[in-house]
Amino acid sequence: MATPERRTFLLDFEKPLAELEGRIQQIRELAEENGVDVSEEIRQLEARANQLRQEIFSTLTPYQRLQLARHPRRPSTLDYIQAITDEWMELHGDRGGYDDPALVGGMARIGGIPAVILGHQKGRDTKDNVTRNFGMASPGGYRKAMRLMDHANRFGMPIFTFIDTPGAWAGVEAEHQGQGEAIAYNLREMFRLDVPIISTVIGEGGSGGALGIGVGDRLLMFEHAVYTVATPEACAAILWKDASKAPRAAEALKITSWDLKNLGILDEILPEPLGGAHSNPLKAAESLKEALLNNLDELSTLTSQQRRELRYQKFRQIGVFAEVPA
């Protein structure tokens, strides 16, 4: 039976599956108590559960994928770092007086290769989310990220960035500290870096908050992650003055990995375990590590000039369209 903690985090479309799994567990416990052999019935019910799981997760709507991307148990930047690195040392501070907990980074060794890894960090519960500002980085966070990327460039280390934020912090204090300038500076400076840069959307990629660490040679994205110019709720509130129309906005915004792959923005979709990355974080981490190392091998065959040109052309081609004569 689903634990109280698991039931707390169940999404609406997951409930039929959780109920069936709960029934299977109840039958198994009753059979053990009474010494009854129900192995055949259990086998049939488990086959039905697997079929139902496949049906649910193969037909998700864009808004349901957004809910998965926001799942409280979904692996975070630090979870992936712990799972895929041989060594890890977090570095702190923007050298301007602030250390933003919503954007973490440091030096690591992955597959024996020294690298700099940085990314947005959400919390696990309300208290942790308040501390991490729900993964919404401040200007100091983006300046810290740029400091770490300059460090990687100076010592010839590849850069891996993990994107997972609803957007940059939009508070008045952030504006006072130069939020727009900090993000714009990162966008410009990342184009000049000589080392390979691989960005991965691990959860929710929102607006300029995501782009502030998202200029790379390759853009990877987990199957159920989303990447969008604005949250569907914000889009619905702007267009229709009704945030409840967010599912309709999610359809129109083309936020899913498959949409972005078709539009030529995304380079590779990383498969997730059936049930989402939170259902088997270690398997998701294995997929991420393999993709990072494979893409790094390919990028390492290019010169720094070739990589900069590749990076430039990648972003120049985003949004290109052709008009068809009437």
Automatic annotation (TrEMBL):
Main location: cytoplasm
GO terms assigned for molecular function: acetyl-CoA carboxylase activity; ATP binding; carboxyl- or carbamoyltransferase activity
UniProt superkingdom: Bacteria
Compartment(s) where it occurs, according to its Swiss-Prot or TrEMBL record: Cytoplasm
Domain CoA carboxyltransferase C-terminal: 44-298
Reactions listed under catalytic activity: N(6)-carboxybiotinyl-L-lysyl-[protein] + acetyl-CoA = N(6)-biotinyl-L-lysyl-[protein] + malonyl-CoA
Coiled-coil portions: 28-55, 282-309
GO cellular component: acetyl-CoA carboxylase complex
Spans traversing the lipid bilayer: none
Pfam family, one: ACCA
EC number(s) recorded for this UniProt protein: 2.1.3.15
Keyword Coiled coil (UniProt): yes
Keywords recorded for this protein, A-Z: ATP-binding, Coiled coil, Cytoplasm, Fatty acid biosynthesis, Fatty acid metabolism, Lipid biosynthesis, Lipid metabolism, Nucleotide-binding, Transferase
InterPro entries found in the cross-reference section: Acetyl_CoA_COase_a_su, ClpP/crotonase-like_dom_sf, COA_CT_C
Record carries keyword Transmembrane helix: no
Biological or metabolic pathway of the protein: Lipid metabolism; malonyl-CoA biosynthesis; malonyl-CoA from acetyl-CoA: step 1/1
PANTHER family xrefs: ACETYL-COENZYME A CARBOXYLASE CARBOXYL TRANSFERASE SUBUNIT ALPHA, ACETYL-COENZYME A CARBOXYLASE CARBOXYL TRANSFERASE SUBUNIT ALPHA, CHLOROPLASTIC
Homology family: Belongs to the AccA family.
HAMAP family found in the cross-reference section: AcetylCoA_CT_alpha (MF_00823)
Complex formation: Acetyl-CoA carboxylase is a heterohexamer composed of biotin carboxyl carrier protein (AccB), biotin carboxylase (AccC) and two subunits each of ACCase subunit alpha (AccA) and ACCase subunit beta (AccD).
Described purpose of this protein according to its UniProt entry: Component of the acetyl coenzyme A carboxylase (ACC) complex. First, biotin carboxylase catalyzes the carboxylation of biotin on its carrier protein (BCCP) and then the CO(2) group is transferred by the carboxyltransferase to acetyl-CoA to form malonyl-CoA.
Protein name: Acetyl-coenzyme A carboxylase carboxyl transferase subunit alpha
Organism: Oscillatoria acuminata PCC 6304
Gene designation: accA
